[in-house]
Amino acid sequence: MHYKLFFLALVGSYTFGQGGFMFKRPKPELIEKKPPLINEVNVDSVSLKINDNLNLVLKNESDPLIINDKKEEKIMGKGFPKTEVLLNINTIPERVEVSIDGKLIGKTPILGKKIISGFHTFEINKEGFAPISYELNVNPSKSVNLDFFMNPVYDIKFKTDEVGLIFELNDDHRWTEDAIKMKLEAGDHKLRVYRLGDIIDEQTIVADQPLTFQYYLKRGVIIQP
C-alpha cells in the first residue's frame, strides 16, 4: 500500500533590524485538518493543500513496520508508538541551514537523516531569504520527504515628500517618516495611507527586486531606479 500526504505551509513573521525592518506577508488563517492514521487509510493517496512553501510526502511501503509493542509503550505510553523515520529534506535554493527542535543538522540537501516520529519544529534559514519555521507531527512511516521553497527578501527604500501622512503595510506595520529602509519579502504587499485618521489611498506594491518606492499624494507609488 502506498500512503502519501502532501502538506504545504507558510509562516508569517517579521523581524526588526538595525536601520530598518523586514516585513513578511501575514500568516493566513488555516483550518487544521488532522490526517488519518496509517491503518485507517483505504485509498492510494490523500492530498491536502494549504499553501506553496512546503511539500510533504509520507511513504508507507508494502512491507509493514515491525513494532515491538512492549518496548514502544515505554517510550510513548498510550497512543501511537514512536518509531524511527528516515528524513529527506530538499530546498529551493540549496545549501540552506536546517535545524530540528533547535539543533542544527546541516545544510540541504539532507538525505537519510533518522528522526523519531512525533512533533518536531523545523527551522529553515539562509541569508537573503525569508526564514521558515514550521511545526510538524511526523507519523510513523518509512520515510518523510520535505521540499521547502524559500521566498527571497529584497532591500526596499520608501520615500515621500508629502506631509502629515501615516503609512501602513500589510495591516500591521505603520510609519510616518518621509524616508525608511526595509527588507521586504518577495510578492504582493498591501499599502494603506492615512491622513487625519481617514484612509485616503490603498494600493498593492510588488517587491520583485531591490527597489525605491516614491509616494505622491496625487500619483500614488512610483518606482524609481
Quick synopsis:
With 225 residues, this protein is mainly beta. It is 4% helix and 52% strand.
Q: Key features?
A:
225 residues; mainly beta; Immunoglobulin-like; six-stranded mixed β-sheet; four-stranded mixed β-sheet; 20 strands; disordered N terminus
Description:
The strands form five sheets. This protein has a six-stranded mixed sheet, with no helix packed on it. A four-stranded mixed sheet has the order 5-12-6-9, with no helix packed on it. It has a four-stranded antiparallel sheet with strand order 8-7-10-11, with no helix packed on it. A hairpin with a 2-residue loop joins β17 and β18 (198-207). The chain is mainly β and 225 residues long. The longest helix has 8 residues, at 69-76. The chain is built from one helix and 20 strands.
> Which strand-content bin applies to the residues?
over 45%
N-to-C series of helices and strands: EEEEEHEEEEEEEEEEEEEEE
- So what's the overall shape? elongated
Provide the gyration radius in Å: 22 Å
How many domain modules?
A: 2
Task: Outline the biggest β-sheet.
Answer: 6 strands, mixed
> Given the helix and strand composition, which structural class is it?
mainly beta
User: What is the overall pLDDT average?
Assistant: 73
**Uncertain runs with pLDDT below 50, 5 residues or more?**
1-21, 26-51, 56-77
The number of E-state strands comes to 20
List the helices and strands and how they pair.
Layout: E1 5-6, E2 15-17, E3 20-23, E4 46-47, E5 54-59, H1 69-76, E6 84-92, E7 97-100, E8 103-107, E9 110-116, E10 118-125, E11 132-138, E12 143-149, E13 153-160, E14 166-169, E15 173-175, E16 179-185, E17 187-195, E18 198-207, E19 211-216, E20 220-224
Parallel strand pairs: 1-4, 3-16, 6-12, 13-19
Antiparallel strand pairs: 2-3, 5-12, 6-9, 7-8, 7-10, 10-11, 13-16, 14-15, 14-17, 17-18, 19-20
